[in-house]
Amino acid sequence: MGQHGGHPPFDIPLLRVARDLDLSDDQATKLHAVCKAHMDALETKGLAFHQAQRAIHEAIQAPGISARDLAALVSAASAREGELVEEARAMTAEGWQVLTAAQRDKAKALMSNPPGMGPGGQGPGHGPHGFHGPQGGQQGPPPQGPPPDGAED
User: Fold this and answer.
1) 100 vs 108: CA distance, rounded Å
2) Contacts of 77 (CB under 8 A, 6+ apart)
3) Quick one: angle between helices 25-61 and 67-98, nearest 10?
4) Would you say 104 and 96 are in contact if contact means Cβ atoms under 8 Å apart?
5) Whole-angstrom Cα distance, residue 81 to residue 8?
6) CB 142: neighbour CB atoms within 10 A?
7) Cβ atoms within 10 Å, residue 91
8) CA distance 127 to 130
9) What is the DSSP letter of 94?
10) Are 95 and 15 spatial neighbours (Cβ–Cβ below 8 Å)?
11) What pLDDT score does 12 carry?
């Protein structure tokens, strides 16, 4: 099934949480068939998108690239990305049909806040105060007043 060994070339949330949905053997077989039916197209479209991105990167580094030529490359890459996203959406839509209503609810909950992620699935440390606390990882102003006892050398 291509270079990704039967896995899509990017994250598809439904597939990421499928193992936690208590699928029956029949559901697992059906979900596997849905994935298999789309995998070659996902890999082909993913490769085309990555090649289009590479063409943009190379063009930017080339001397004398015109804005018009660069815009054409960007437009082509956007089209390839759209094709890839549509294929992933089609696979996901078919996969949702395999699940029961309770499994769909559980999948939605798991996808909205994956394990190891902060609120809203923003990644570790990304909570209501930003990354690493209220200053978003930036140090605040220096403390005022004399240093604590023993702090001066």
Assistant:
1) 12
2) 49, 52, 53, 55, 56
3) 170
4) yes
5) 14
6) 5
7) 23
8) 5
9) H
10) yes
11) 73
What DSSP character marks residue 124? T
Q: DSSP E strands: which ranges in the chain?
A: 126-127, 130-131
Q: Which residues of the chain have pLDDT under 70?
A: 1-11, 114-153
Burial class, 59, CB count within 10 angstroms (exposed 0-12 / middle 13-18 / buried 19+):
middle
In terms of C-beta density within 10 A (0-12 exposed, 13-18 middle, 19 or more buried), how is residue 63 classed?
exposed
Instruction: Using DSSP, state whether 98 is helix, strand or coil.
Output: helix
Question: What is the C-alpha to C-alpha distance for residues 31 and 17, in angstroms, rounded to an integer?
Answer: 12
Contact between residue 108 and residue 23 where contact means Cβ atoms under 8 Å apart = no
User: For residue 127, what are the β-bridge partners?
Assistant: 130
Q: Decide: 87 and 41 in contact? Cβ < 8 Å.
A: yes
**DSSP annotation of 18:** G
* Chain length of the chain: 153
Cβ partners under 8 Å of residue 74, min gap 6: 56
- Picking from 53, 113, 119, the residue whose alpha carbon sits closest to that of residue 81 is 53
